[in-house]
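Q&A log
Question type: sequence-to-structure
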Amino acid sequence: MELTCLIGERAQGSIVFKDEVYRGLSLAAVREIAALCICSLKEVEIAALEMGVIPERYERSLGTVGGPAGQVRLLRSRAAVIGLGGLGGLTAELLTRMGVGTIVLVDGDSFNESNLNRQVMSTETNLGQPKVTAATARLAEINAAVELIAYPSFATPHNLEKMLAGCHVALDCLDSLGARFLLQDFCRRLQIPFVHGAIAQYYGQLSVIYPGDPGLEAVYGPTDVERDRGIEKELGNPATTPALVASLQAQEALKILLGTGELLRGRLLFIDTLQGVFESVQLEKGVNHSGSGEN
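Response status: OK
Response body:
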């Protein structure tokens, strides 16, 4: 039978969104249809949404993404999460739960015990395991419709172009300035917007940078200065700050993909959770506002 016919047969119940009534499609039905039609879960979900049938996993997302069309847009999007530590692990999970259709996962590191206090993918049972391996397994259990492309290696000038190919947004969840500037360089070259995030102790920062915008140079100084890790080794990395910044990074990425809302573009959002301060600073080329540097 045709895909659309099967969806129509399996759709049931009612989901109300903005006074419109839609039928729902259970996860079990999505899996059954995909098996019968020999296609991916994502293809089934997109076809259903285009018919006005809502996969039940996305019912509570409709008001945020702008209805069925917005969810289709997310499912057809591709995001790269560069770094899978305190920021990247949670960011990748949030994008997966929202149904971003393809997520590129990049990290060459493995889990150690110092990660347990803040990195959502880290557990006592996967210490020593590559972060990409653990992330792929966890995310596949959360939303099997999302295509996961894993690179168990660090980003370098030799592999970043391949990693970023076809991406609509990249998320900077890195822990060194050199790697951040490298990512920015390739995003500019490939015309990809990216979402910068960093934390240290009680402090965090966030910015959205499009090609041609004032970028990391306006935060950290000129690109020819020596760059290494920030002050996080001295200040420490709690569980709460990366979770906060990761959530904001995911939200900015979703806004980029959906084309909605006002982005943190040309601005640096500085967060001081100790004092309860959120401050937005306008970025200008060549102006160094300093900043955090860990994930």
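Response note: Residues 3-64 form one domain.
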